[in-house]
Amino acid sequence: MLLEWETATEVDNLGFNIYREDIHSGTKEKINPNLIPSQVPGGSEGAIYGFVDNSAIFGDSYAYWLEALDFHMRVKDRYGPVTFL
To answer: What dihedral angle (degrees, nearest 10) is formed by the CA atoms of 21, 27, 32, 38?
Structure first.
């Protein structure tokens, strides 16, 4: 499953993590093995991103969250959930 997002600015943004929850079991896990780096770290402009969730099972229902981290590796913002049924 291809997940895409776009930022407007990336001031104090180091990168992103993506979390997936199996809606039926309630199991939630981070699915990116490494931090997805900002394309314009600290920049006033934005960027377009994509991440392929190769471990998603076709036909299963999931909810996804996007987490933005600052330069100190602290959670800056969380977005979601976005649900795929």
So the answer is: 50
pLDDT of residue 84: 83
pLDDT given at position 58: 87
Pairing status of strand 36-37 against strand 28-30: unpaired
Model confidence, pTM: 0.91
Parts of the chain with a pLDDT under 50: none
- What are the structure tokens assigned to 66, written together? 């996007």
Neighbouring C-beta atoms of residue 10, cutoff 10 Å? 19
Measured distance CA(43)–CA(38) in Å, rounded:
9
- Evaluate whether 65 touches 79 at the Cβ level (below 8 Å): yes
